What we know:
- There is one protein chain.
- By secondary structure, this protein is mainly alpha-helical.
- The chain has one domain: Winged helix-like DNA-binding domain superfamily/Winged helix DNA-binding domain (Arc Repressor Mutant, subunit A).
- The chain is 67% helix and 7% strand.
- The protein has five helices and three strands.
- The protein has helices spanning 2-37, 44-52, 61-68, 72-84, 103-114, and strands spanning 58-60, 89-90, 99-101.
- The protein has a three-stranded antiparallel sheet.
- The longest helix has 36 residues, at 2-37.
- It is globular, with a radius of gyration of 18 Å.
- Residues 1-7 have low confidence and may be disordered.
Amino acid sequence: MAWGFAHNLTNRLCVFISTSLFLPVFRLLNxxxxxxxxHDETTVAVLRLFEVLPDHPMITLALATKRLKANxxxxxRAIYALEKAKVLYEITGKSRxxxxxxxxxxxxxxxELMDPA
Length: 117
C-alpha cells in the first residue's frame, strides 16, 4: 500500500515538473500558430513547415524542401511567409545557403532548460 502511494506521488511530481518546464514552450507555439493562421500569406505548406520547426528550429531551404516533400519554390514561399510573420529569421546574412532560425523558440527552450525555476 505504501509503495502505491509513493508511486502515485512520484508520477504526479513528474507530471508537474514536466508541465511547468514546457508550458512556456507550448504557449509560444500556440501564440505563433495563431499568428500564422491570421496571416495573409498562410498556406498549407506554411502550416506544415511551422509544425516542423520544434524539431528543427534552425532550417535551410534544402531541409524545408525535404521535410515538406515539396519543390524549392513552395518551400521558399513557406519560409518567406514565416519570415513576414516574424516567426523565422535569416541568420547568415548570405544570399546563398541561408539558415533560418526560430529564434524565440530557441530562447524559450534554452531558458527553460537552464533555469526551470
